[in-house]
Input
Amino acid sequence: MKKLIFSLVAVAAASAAPAAWAGAPLELKSDIFVEKQQKRPDGTLATKLVTPNLIIPGDRLVFVVHYKNAGTIPASNIAVTNPIPRAISFSGTSDGNEIVSVDGGKSWGKINQLRVSNSDGSSRAAGMADVTHIRWTLNQTLAAGAAGKLI
Output
């Protein structure tokens, strides 16, 4: 499972993720959680995901995208694209293999392969703060009625 970790810059807004697929309708639903550290009885810390009542700058957010093949035939070549709200700073996924865009979804790649244009016409290496969209590609066929989640 991929875990998306974001840092809150201002106010967060969760959005449904658009998807592209071949052959079947795909239902998508997004949830947002805040990572909280809770002390266990033995004194160690455990990370918990909680539904936020209030999100404040510096909170680490986790977005979960639930997907389901709502069709009657298998779906393949599924790509789920999620825009990153401007108020959110993308920190990466748990496996570090994210495919991202830094130009509003026009071009895609790993963050270390992308460049950002400066106002003077020069360019620089893209950083996590430049990410505007993230894309997942499901590398398997999704049977009719099958579901899963991207964390």
